[in-house]
Structure formats: structure tokens, C-alpha cells
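User: I'm putting together notes for a lab meeting next week and I want to include a structural view of one of the chains we've been expressing. I don't have a solved structure, so I'd like a prediction I can at least talk through. The sequence is below, exactly as it appears in our construct file.
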Amino acid sequence: MAGRAAGPEAVGEADGDGYTGAVPRTVEVDEFASQARDLVTAVADAGESVIIVQGGTPLAVMLAPDAVPTQAVLADLPRWEEWVHAVRESFAATAGSAAGPNVPLPEPPELDKALLGFDPAAGLVGSPAGREFLAGELERLNVPVRDEHLLSLIYADLIALCEDKDHIYEPDLRVLAQEKIAEAPQRLRLLAVTVASSTGLPATAEITLELGHGPAMRREHGDGPLDAAFKAIQRLTQLEPEVENFSVVSATPGGDAMAEAVIQLVLEGRRAVGAGASTNAIEAGIHAYVNALNFLTEVRAPA
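Assistant: Thanks for the context. Below is the predicted structure for the 303-residue chain, given as C-alpha cells.
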């Protein structure tokens, strides 16, 4: 897969002709010094995002502090703290000096089971208030679920988990939600992805989908890799949902980290959440988009 990219990426709303989005500007590291002032101004004043690359490989990302992707990453505090911890350890090892006492990572925030509607001593094993609290927590954790049936499935699994575990933490909610989101019916299946992106040129995406009656391929151009890929999927499926929410975060530490994408699509007044993971952030976003479309097409399918 050409044109690899990584890091959070903001996606805008769809217009009348399909998806359009604010995709990051890519700048080669050798060109960065001469453009630094203009790039910082673009980030600070216009809210743009910039990916600094070397030979196509991402090195750094510039985002405004109040950008939605930045907030999504910084809000994921347990994972952020783990990343900072790993960086500190690696610097100490590289310098050949002792890293100091091995301080354990702080535990992620624990949730009150009673707020989740689980309090057997009070005869409470599931409640509408607990289900509503779960929906609010998932929204706060950047995994919004507004499909009532899907939320019910997640809540049922959460109550079962409350019975099995003494303590419930915020990451437990994220994992439960994303496992259920990933279990979408597979009317659409992503078979192949090829994207290419160069500075100053439109990005190209070639998408091959299994559409239920056989595979089909489409190539489209766009303002960035995701823009091009989403347009290709729209042409293949004849569906043009609006992207309401989208975030990509690093799911694992290290240079070969897995990217984790969550997307929320709106079509004809219905919302669906999709999730995807890959070592490539663009591919993770495409998987999430197809995953959400599977939910939407399942709802639209005739009985």
C-alpha cells in the first residue's frame, strides 16, 4: 500500500457531490525549514494539520491544540501515559543511563458499577439509567454509539463483565464497544486497497469491494488518501453518507504501532459507528468506513 500515513486525521462534512474533508498537508522534512513559518501560521490560524514526512514515511504531525483529533488523542489518557512512559524508557536506554526506579503505570480510571446499573446487593442488575450512563461514557471516550440495538448489545455484555470482574475500568468500555462494532454484517467486504499521495498532486485510491454479487473495483482522485478512498467506496455502493465524527489514534506503542480508527456516518437520518484497525492509519480509516456502511446497509435491506 503506497503513500503510508499515520497519526490523527480530521475529516470534514460531506457536500452535495459526496465526501469532502480537511486532510493533512504533507511536507518533506528537507522542505520544512523554508516553510516552517507559513506552516505554523496555517496550523494556528486556519486550523490545518501538517504531516512531516521523509521519503513518504511520516515523522511528525502538527495540529492546533483545540483541533478535534488532538483532543481525541489527549483525552485517551491511559494510552497517552503509556506512550510517554515508553518514550522515557527508550531515551534512558539509548543514553546508557539507568532509567531510575521502575514506576508502574497509573491504573486507568475505575467506574462505579452502581452508575452502570449493577448493584446486586440492592437487587440491581441492569437498568435504563445504567444504559444511559454507558452511552454518555462511550461518547466521552470518542466511541459514540447511537444505534439503540447496538447499544443494548454492548450494555448486555457490560453487565456480564460486571459479574465476572471486581473492577471495571474505562478501557473495558472501549473494548466492549469496539468488539460489537466490529461484528457488523458483512454485506460489504474490503478486498484490496491501494493509495498514492504526493505533495502538490491529487491523491489516488483504488478500492476493491465484495458487494454481495461479486467483487468490483473503482479508482478515484481526491484531496487526500481518505478523501479519494471514501469517494471510490461511494461510487461502488451508490451511497453517500455524511461523516459526522472520525478519529484515529495509536492502539499500540512502537514504530510498528497499530492504528485504531472510529467513524460515525449518517445516512437518511440514521447513524452508524464503524471501527477499523491496521498498521496504516489510512487503511484503518477505510476499514472503519466500510464497517459503518455494513450497519447502514443492513438497516436499509428489505426484510
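A couple of points you could mention at the meeting. Helices lie at 29-46, 68-75, 77-95, 128-140, 148-164, 170-181, 225-237, 281-300. The radius of gyration is 21 Å.

User: Perfect, that's what I needed.
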